[in-house]
Amino acid sequence: MSRVDGTDERYVVGIDYGTLSGRVLVVRVRDGAEVGTAVHEYRHGVIETALPGGGPALPPNWALQDPEDYRDVLRHAVPAALADAGVDPSRVVGIGTDFTACTVLPTLADGTPLCQLPDLRDRPHAWVKLWKHHAAQPHADRINALAHERDEPWIGRYGGKISAEWQFAKGLQILEEDPEVYQRADRFIEAADWIVWQLCGTETRNVCTAGYKGIRQDGRYPAKDYLDALHPDFVDFVTKLDGPLLPLGDRAGSLSARAAAWTGLPEGIAVAVGNVDAHVTAAAAQALSPGRLVAIMGTSTCHVVNGTDLAEVAGMCGVVDGGISPGAWGYEAGQSGVGDIFGWFVRHAAPAGMDSHERLTELAAAQPVGAHGLVALDWWNGNRSLLVNHDLSGLVVGLTLATRPEDVYRALLESTAFGTRMIIEAFVEAGVPVTDLVVAGGLTSNRLLMQIYADVTKRPLSIIGSAQGPALGSAIHAAVAAGAYPSIHEASAAMGRVDEGVYRPNPADARAYDALYAEYRTLHDHFGRGGDDVMLRLRAIRNAAAVTVQADTEREVVG
Q1: Phi, psi at residue 93, to the nearest 5°?
Q2: Are 426 and 432 in contact (CB under 8 A)?
Q3: Quick one: CATH architecture of 286-464+497-528?
Q4: Sign of CA dihedral 226, 382, 43, 27
Q5: β-pairing verdict for 301-307 and 292-297
Q6: Which CATH superfamily is domain 11-272 in?
Q7: Is the peptide bond before 102 cis (omega within 30 degrees of 0)?
Q8: Span 225-276, pLDDT tens digits
Q9: Letter string b/e over residues 286-301, b meaning 16 or more CB atoms within 10 A of that residue's CB
Q10: Euclidean distance between CA atoms 251 and 271, whole angstroms
Q11: What span, in angstroms and rounded, lies between the C-alpha atoms of 482 and 479?
């Protein structure tokens, strides 16, 4: 491995594609120093009500995006980050990317998104389905039921349930609701792999999304007879997924002339294999060792941890060989709503004068544990782990006329910590050790929230030493793809950073939280495991009402 001195520094670019924007980081190869950054907000954001060109309202639980917004990040944010860094582009040796997942799109054989074809632009199923598109829950339910009925060997690797967010559920929804779009799609590809295709002109698939989101285990996808039993026309679905599969840290190709013109980077530099925002962060947080769980906390939370042995954990998102880093079994779980829940309360429920996270946190921090008399369930956006049901909803129990906004806010903070403890305990009970936590993401700045997590989980909590963990992780993978380091582990040791043991459990508060957690578990199992399906019934009533309103609106427009 060659080293660089102060007169011959090399740099890499990491791009983190989030839910609302793309963030670019220019990083020095030698030590991971972050020398320049830029953010580009997606022009269309999340498409939830109607397509950009207008037309009928989208049904409930839809979340789409425009792939051109992703290319705009290359055109605008990469040059801006280079300018911010003051780095000569000729010094850049590689570029790496990560994406929210499962975010997928149907394309032609050359990678052209179907939503960019004039005759399909008004067809919702031709657009990118964002990770939080949850309208495929009925299709996920059928996928799971049939897998258990047939005793499919892969279902246990996903905790017994495939999520409505994953590739197969979204693909089956397209087939059954718009078969023409399904047939026109030559490829069905993760945005993580599509953007790499745009950068280097070569289609590749990464082992991370293929394993966690695409049900690829032990070198194969689900068998054709299983897919035929789901729907006879679904047999060819794996042909839309099957492309060159590469391990994380590999070189997917070289930056094309077209992408070089977009970004201002040199043609021919290394383009790293695509990755997922959560999984790539483990390298940035120096958390590749088994037992060190990384919680990437933002609008949602993803939990990833390496293990030495294969285990099946009920309700987890998946376990994949090399899914986080080569040579280890990578485990994933998650919560579909975290920061989104707190944001909902501030925007829609907090009164004027208290409608800020800072003010509510200040007031909530003054309370002893349990003083609000509340317990909440963290299902405002459904449950990803351990119940894997996006038709579930939020709940707050214990409200009285004495309840104040800061009480509810603290209960919501605590509910997400309880959800994380459920996930940790599921890992440990299945034989996957979790020794400590490293937290990354925008929520690390809330000291109250971080202390609550340490107290509830009874584990020391470290904080990633970068405000842009995923982008730094992508830059680390770019350095490996460019040959600057021989492995992700060595690049992580040199370029990653973490502040160790910033938060320690308070023994008295941890004991007090045990009592609240016991109540959380009772509610969790009652409403999530068949004690009372009232949440599911209410969701069905809401969806039926929304369909009626949409039909009435369309009739009025036609009239």
Answers
A1: -110, -10
A2: no
A3: 2-Layer Sandwich (3.30)
A4: negative
A5: antiparallel
A6: ATPase, nucleotide binding domain (3.30.420.40)
A7: yes
A8: 999 999 999 999 999 998 899 999 999 999 999 999 999 999 999 999 999 9
A9: bbbebbbbbbbbbbbb
A10: 6
A11: 5
